[in-house]
Design a protein that fits this description.
By secondary structure, this protein is mainly α. It has a domain of 92 residues. The chain contains 16 helices and no strands. The N terminus is likely disordered. Keywords: Membrane, Transmembrane, Transmembrane helix.
Length: 309
């Protein structure tokens, strides 16, 4: 009797195929293990990625060196177009590539003629994308012997840059770095002018309200009010009345706001003046100033000069 071998062959093939499949699945499921039972790092970070990172770092260093060399070469020409390219294009690119190295390069004493300008552009570029680190760098600058206010100047550049997009953060720079009174006055004046157009003066006013009573506080509020009067004299008038006590600074602030207000809306300005105590010397000064301003407005084409202290 003949034996049919075909079924046996089929079964054998199935067994062989199943065994091979099992081994293959076992190999796939058993990832390389680290000693602590976790997946080994090299399985998550292939060798080609590490090599790629190294190449990227090398390329970055080479690009930084190339930019640095080009900057120095163009500055040496003293050609206005070349220097403009340095500050408009190359230095911002250098800061974007490696801000800390760019700051070290800019503040180096090797290029004293260009040092201040290089530092300014670097720190402003840095502040545009990483204000925290830019502020930290500027705040910790040691002042050179020939420029005892360099640190405060660099801090102010950080604030100026951040002020373009974030008034609260710009004020925080000033609050946290404790710059000298002269630089603080410049900053308040400039930021007031910048923010008055966009009605962003609230963060600045809130910061000044924390100052101790005295001449500096009053003077700074007067500068804010003077800027605000250009776009919103009613709020500027309220600020003067609320924040600046009676005295010379108050008087000058009132008259400055009044001039701007009377130039655009004499009736509203007049109503404000009528709120002053009639026995207060400022009342008569305000009446006189109001009349002079209206007369000038009717005969001149440009605003009257402001009182300066």
């Amino acid at each position: 009797m003949k034996t049919n071998t075909k079924p046996r062959l089929v079964v054998g093939c199935i067994i062989l195929f199943g065994g091979a499949l099992f081994v293959a699945m076992l190999g796939v499921s058993r990832e390389p293990q680290a000693g602590n039972g976790k997946v080994a790092e090299h399985s998550l970070a292939p060798k080609h990625q590490t090599e790629s990172s190294r190449r990227t770092a090398a390329q970055k260093a080479a690009e930084f060196a190339r930019l640095q060399e080009e900057i120095l070469a163009l500055l040496a020409t003293k050609d206005p177009a070349s220097i403009n390219r340095v500050y408009q294009k190359l230095v911002p690119a250098l800061a974007k590539l490696d801000p800390e190295a760019a700051a070290a390069f800019a503040s180096s004493q090797e290029n004293p003629e260009w040092r201040a300008d290089l530092m300014m552009v670097v720190v402003q570029s840095w502040a545009s994308f990483d204000p925290d680190k830019a502020q930290d760098w500027a705040a910790n600058l040691p002042n050179p012997a020939d420029n005892p206010r360099e640190r405060d100047t660099m801090v102010s550049y950080v604030s100026f840059e951040v002020a373009k997009t974030n008034p609260e953060r710009a004020v925080r720079v000033l609050r946290e770095t404790n710059i000298n009174a002269d630089r603080r006055e410049i900053m308040v004046e400039s930021l007031s002018q910048q923010w008055s157009r966009a009605d962003d003066l609230q963060p600045l006013a809130e910061w000044l309200a924390t100052f101790p009573e005295g001449e500096e506080r009053d003077s700074l509020f007067a500068r804010v009010a003077n800027a605000q009067a250009q776009t919103d004299p009613a709020r500027a008038a309220a600020l003067v009345s609320r924040e600046i006590p009676a005295g010379q600074i108050h008087e000058e602030a009132v008259l400055n706001v009044l001039r701007k207000w009377a130039w655009t809306d004499a009736e509203a300005a007049s109503k404000w003046v009528e709120l002053f105590p009639k026995d207060d010397p400022i009342y008569m000064l305000a009446i006189k100033t109001l009349g002079e301003t209206v007369a000038r407005r009717n005969g001149l084409t440009k605003p009257p000069a402001q009182v300066t202290r």
